[in-house]
Design a protein that fits this description.
By secondary structure, this protein is an all-alpha fold. It contains five helices and no strands. Pfam families: Retrotran_gag_2.
């Protein structure tokens, strides 16, 4: 990581314009690229291929990932709560077996 920071500091773009707005834009662009790269590096190869070209800013990429995966996680939680609320114990099976069946992680059947 230290090597990456050195490269970033050495190759920093210096605005030739003295306009403070231009300097702010250059600084924002650099930070956005670092953030976007950090998010993309945390994705699997398959997901990287999907998200690397469609989202140009770190915020748009983060918002899309949050929208997609946070929604899926909430749907899965609702499924497990519904399953728990409907669950009834049966007499011909051990309590441990029934508990394992209830909490066994599975994909949501959609």
């Amino acid at each position: 990581m230290k090597g990456l920071l050195i490269v970033i500091q050495v190759t920093r773009l210096e605005p030739t314009d003295t306009n403070p707005r231009t300097a702010e834009l250059v600084q924002w662009t650099e930070r956005d690229q670092i953030g976007r790269g950090a998010i993309l590096s945390a994705l699997s190869n398959m997901r990287f291929d999907v998200y690397c070209s469609d989202y140009y800013t770190a915020k748009s990429l983060w918002d899309e990932l949050d929208r997609k995966y946070n929604t899926e996680e909430q749907g899965l939680k609702k499924y497990y709560v519904f399953k728990f609320m409907r669950y009834q114990m049966v007499e011909d099976m051990s309590v441990a077996g029934q508990t394992h069946e209830l909490i066994q992680p599975r994909a949501c059947p959609h």
